[in-house]
């Protein structure tokens, strides 16, 4: 009696299938183990409660400080998210900035404030206090510059001006609104 060739190949096919399954499982386990370090995901690698930062210039003078109830750092892009940050810039006149959240790049050179952003330039001599508000403002803390491409309102004493975007330079003491700018200016009655 003659045996069929298909029956003789069955054990060989079963061994090939098991080898392929073993190879696939090994690859699946290796790729899963490779992602466990968090570098491929946007997961926090550390969290700081009651965050406080002070930045000094090259002469040792306090340039600015930041405080927040929580700071979260991400390893994949080396960025930082700060919840309810409050920044203080010490150059005269002093400037205060706050928001619901801030995103900071890996070097701390660029900080994007979002959610109810409010800035206050303190009164100084003949210059009255000024308040500006926006939905999003990007600041460059070391350069003491800020800009926004969202509607920004600037209030100084009784005057109120709003524009589609703005740029500010605290060192040069300039604040420029652009786009559709509208405002109300009140003259001093003494002049």
Explained architecture:
The chain is α+β, with helices and mostly antiparallel strands and 191 residues long. It has 2 domains: 1-34; 44-184, Lipopolysaccharide (LPS) transport protein A like domain (lipopolysaccharide transport protein A fold, Sandwich), CATH 2.60.450. The chain is built from 1 helix and 14 strands, in the order H-E-E-E-E-E-E-E-E-E-E-E-E-E-E. The protein has one helix at residues 5-34, and strands at 44-56, 62-74, 79-83, 86-89, 95-98, 101-104, 111-121, 130-140, 145-148, 152-156, 159-163, 165-169, 174-178, 182-184. A 6-stranded antiparallel β-barrel has the order 2-3-6-7-5-4. A hairpin with a 4-residue loop joins strand 8 and strand 9 (145-148). The longest helix is centred in the N-terminal third of the chain and has 30 residues, at 5-34. The N and C termini lie far apart (123 Å).
Nearest-integer average pLDDT: 84
* Shape assignment: elongated
Low-confidence stretches: none
Largest sheet: 6 strands, antiparallel, barrel
Kindly provide the radius of gyration, computed on alpha-carbon positions and rounded to a whole number of angstroms: 29 Å
Q: How many discrete structural domains?
A: 2
The CATH architecture category of the largest domain equals: Sandwich
- Quickly give the structural class: alpha+beta
Would you tell me which CATH topology of the largest domain applies?
Answer: lipopolysaccharide transport protein A fold
Considering the protein shown, what is the CATH homologous superfamily of the largest domain?
Lipopolysaccharide (LPS) transport protein A like domain
Please give the share of residues in helix.
10-25%
The number of helices is 1
Please provide the count of β strands: 14
Order of helices and strands: HEEEEEEEEEEEEEE
Gap from first CA to last CA = 123 Å
% residues in beta strands: over 45%
Strand order within the widest beta sheet: 2-3-6-7-5-4
Task: Return the CATH class of the largest domain.
Answer: Mainly Beta
């Amino acid at each position: 009696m003659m045996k069929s060739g298909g029956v003789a190949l069955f054990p060989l096919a079963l061994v090939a299938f098991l080898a392929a399954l073993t190879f696939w499982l090994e690859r699946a386990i290796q790729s899963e183990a490779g992602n466990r370090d968090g570098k491929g995901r946007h997961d926090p690698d550390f969290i700081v409660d009651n965050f406080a930062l002070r930045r000094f210039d090259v002469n040792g003078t306090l340039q600015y400080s930041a405080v927040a109830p929580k700071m979260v750092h991400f390893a994949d892009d080396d960025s930082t998210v700060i919840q309810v940050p409050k920044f203080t810039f010490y150059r005269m006149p002093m400037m205060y900035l706050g928001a619901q959240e801030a995103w900071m790049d890996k070097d701390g050179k660029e900080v994007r404030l979002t959610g109810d952003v409010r800035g206050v330039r303190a009164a100084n001599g003949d210059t009255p206090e000024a308040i500006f508000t926006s939905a999003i403002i990007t600041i460059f803390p070391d350069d003491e510059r800020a800009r926004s491409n969202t509607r920004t309102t600037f209030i100084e004493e009784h005057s109120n001006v709003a524009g589609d975007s703005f740029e500010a330079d605290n060192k040069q003491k300039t604040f420029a609104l652009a786009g559709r700018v509208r405002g109300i200016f009140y003259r001093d009655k003494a002049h």
